[in-house]
Amino acid sequence: MKRSVLIFGMLLVIGAFLGNTVRAAEPVLMKKVIEVPNATKEKIFEKVRTWSETYVQSYSSDLKSGVVVANGEISYPAPTIDRIQYTILFKMKNTIQNNKDTVAFEDVMLKAPRSYLTESVGAAPPFIGGEVAPIKSKKDIAAANNVLNYVANNLGDNLMNKSASACPIEKCRECGLLATSPAEMKEHMKGHGGHQSAPKE
Ligand SMILES: [Zn+2]
Question: What is the value of pTM for the model shown?
Answer without folding.
Answer: 0.78
